[in-house]
Design a protein that fits this description.
alpha/beta; Rossmann fold; two-stranded antiparallel ribbon; 6 helices; globular; binds 5-O-phosphono-beta-D-ribofuranosylamine
Length: 208
Amino acid sequence: MKSIVIVISGRGSNMRAIVEAEPPVRVAAVISNDPGAAGLEYARARGIFAQTVNHREFASREAFDASLAAAIDAHAPDLVLLAGFMRILTDGFVQRYEGRMLNIHPSLLPSFTGLHTHRRALELGVKIHGCTVHYVTPRLDHGPIVIQAAVPVLPGDTEEILAARVLRQEHRIYPQAVRWFAEGRLALENGIVRVAGAGASQSAFPDR
Ligand code: GRF
């Protein structure tokens, strides 16, 4: 069975959704850069190895990334999942895991890279918003797209309401991406992700 390491910074609801979907992978470890991350407690309670690599204890980004890589590599995972991980990674770190590291981003990439995606979507008046699971490349939030889900932006939406609507879809598509990986169905061809036998299911237009 393939194994994964999940890297978080906080709440860890995506990590939890992946664990509870029980894709056919072994969750070797959950690692957080913040010792206060609620997700760590959840992982420990589920009997999953959980560890902190505290970025505040390192003098440079390079030193932190080296330590994070050592913590990940100790488990020799087949895939690394960034799930609400809020640190910018060095190019060296990203290149080390190129083709075997996924991230979830709360927008329909390539729109709204970076932070505060829901606020910016509301400010610009977009009518459709969503989330994206993508491979991580050195260019922030620009890697090959595995799966996306769209949600409507509705009159009266606040940032919180919209975020919650998107988050429900994050919790569907990230486990789906992990399942595809576990089944050996993900292939990268010239920067495009093909999912063997997935048909149109790389794009999800769910009910609200
Ligand atoms: C999610 O919205 C994710 O897309 C973004 O950060 C949030 C993390 O939430 N990158 P959680 O920690 O998984 O609950």
